[in-house]
Amino acid sequence: MFSYQPPVKHMQYVLSDVLSATDTLRVDAGYNEIDEQLVRQVLEEAGRFTAEVLFPVNASGDRQGCRFESGAVFTPDGFRDAYRQFVDSGWAALACDPGYGGQGLPHVLNCALQEMMISANHAWTMYPGVLHGAYTCLKAHGSEELKQYYLPKIVSGEWLVTMALTEPQAGSDVGLLRTRAVEGDTGTYRLSGNKIFISGGEHDLTENIVHLVLARIPGGPEGSKGVSLFVVPKICPDGSRNQVTCTGIEHKMGIRGSATCSLEFAGATGWLVGEPHRGLAAMFVMMNAARMLVGAQGLGIAETVYQNAARYANERLQMKAVDRPAERKDQPADPIALHPPVRRLLLSQRAYVEGGRMMLYWSGLMLDLAERHPIPQRRQDFEQMLALVTPVVKAFLTEKGFQGASDALQVYGGYGVITETGVEQYLRDCRVTMIYEGTNEIQAIDLVVRKILGDQGVRLGRFLELVRATVQAERTGPFAGHSECLSKLATELAAIARAVCESGTANLTPLHWVAGDVLRLMGHCIIGWLLLRSASASCNNREDDYAFHDERLETVDHYFAYEFTETHAALAVLRASFAQHGLSLTW
After folding, report:
1. Segment holding 247, helix H or strand E
2. pLDDT tens, position by position, 505-564
3. Domain check: are 477 and 544 in the same one?
4. Which of 10, 149, 227, 572 is the most buried (most CB within 10 A)?
């Protein structure tokens, strides 16, 4: 039977042993109340909620889907009750400012919560998924009046939020949008236009839905520079129904319990957020949070399918393993987990789950430090580093999450394509993560052009300094071989950055052509670096739990032996492509 068991032990290991998160949060982020006991308590309670409340309505929500009737959307059975428990337990407010009703806990713990919610029920998690991003956006750019009115309701989860960007002709290119905002009375605007692919654009979970909408004020600049951001509530402050109508919902291959809506704004009342024509900059605060969430989606899905594939492989008996253990010599067949091809599939899944969790939580920790480090320059450094790695978190973790779901289905064999086994739903649910909130191709271009070329490789250089420090510490120890592999990749990435910067902006074609390969190299560098740190941590703590830490060390060895080799192919592509475009790439 398909199941989900929150990996609390490994989560705590990542936070405590690999990242030293509690010490860092106390010393550098002012979270004086944070200790190991509190972290464990939050993880365990979140695990209970996700496993006992969200997961039981996951498969049924997929089968039932959402229902659309005359502009109203009805979510699958059990979703409303699950949302009520989510709000009553205070999960919506976990990492929000106590001044607006939040619990004031670190963002990195919210990353763990998001991972578990997605592992248990991806479709349901889409509804509160942008709450924190919307809170951050309004807190940073909203007027005091908007903040006082909306933030307490958003923080508590009493009202849900949407991010309304996409239009039929304007997907990745927001500059093509046509929704108009005409100035009205008493500081309001009237918005007219159509939005599509709006997650949670209409539903029955909350009375009010707050739409954050991108639109054009007439007379503004063309393209994305002329876009403004507005708060457009379903229910206006005076209690009247706003002129926002759901005109339909999409029928999708995955996340069927999430209502993906088309919305019509027919002179709807809205309030400007931030400055006119500066809406995209304000919305990017929310979009970056959403991209972190999508990375968590890739990880969360990979975790659940790996758990089930591993359990199934240990139960399914087929043939005799080529290196069967002596205690099974009289058995007619062995668990497929003992067969090397299946074992390799499982270890590959586990490597990206464990390494991906480290990447996500490291990013969450940087978000805390970017907000709360006592030294302004250090806050800016962490903010810049987070901006560098956010496209990698989104694209690399979703790509590997989909690959993991496909590999898990492969472990199941013929049973994997049967609906009742559960794994095929997770494969369907995962596919969209490589598309929404900026396709993975756009994330790669963002990394190479806006981040590496944009600052002449300064941020990348700072990250590579962190990698080299770890490499130097492990150069003569038991992980010297892994350290050497990582050292070579760091050198190659530095050379790539130089080549990118030397190519300049005159001809971006070669950079766009190889951006995906650069992003994969960066993903492997981050995961390799963090797994090397975990190897050192497990080696030092092995006596505390031999079985647990030996499994971690096995993961690291497998990753560097079998997965890290992807970097060789990516480098070969880079050399060939740069040569094709008349550029030099040598080191």
Report:
1. strand 244-249
2. 888 999 999 999 999 999 999 999 999 999 999 999 999 999 999 999 999 999 999 999
3. yes
4. 227
DSSP assignment of 141-159? HS-HHHHHHHHHHHHHTSS
Which residue range(s) make up the domain with 118?
8-66+77-145
Same domain, residue pair 517 and 577: yes
Closest CA to 515 of 487, 496, 494: 496
Look-up of token digits 């492990």: 474
Contact 259, 202 (CB under 8 A): yes
Instruction: Please answer whether residues 228 and 278 qualify as being in contact, where contact means their C-beta atoms are separated by less than 8 angstroms.
Output: yes
| Average pLDDT of every residue of the chain | 96
58 and 184 fall within a common domain: no
Q: Does residue 165 sit in the same domain as residue 263?
A: yes
Mean pLDDT in residue range 397-411: 98
Q: What pairs with residue 198 in β-bridges? A: 261
- For the stretch 163-217, pLDDT in tens is 999 999 998 888 899 999 999 988 999 999 999 999 999 999 999 999 999 999 9
Return the H-helix or E-strand segment holding 359: helix 340-372
Distances (CA, A) of 268 to 211, 283, 451: 11, 20, 37
Q: Which of 239, 262, 282 is the last residue of a domain?
A: 282
Q: Examine the fold and report which residue of 101, 116, 145 is the final residue of a domain before the chain moves on.
A: 145
**Residue 346 located in a structural domain:** no
- Looking at residue 217, the DSSP 8-state letter turns out to be P
CA dist 311 and 292 (Å) reads 29
- Tell me the catalytic residues: 437
Q: 313: part of which helix (H) or strand (E)?
A: helix 279-315
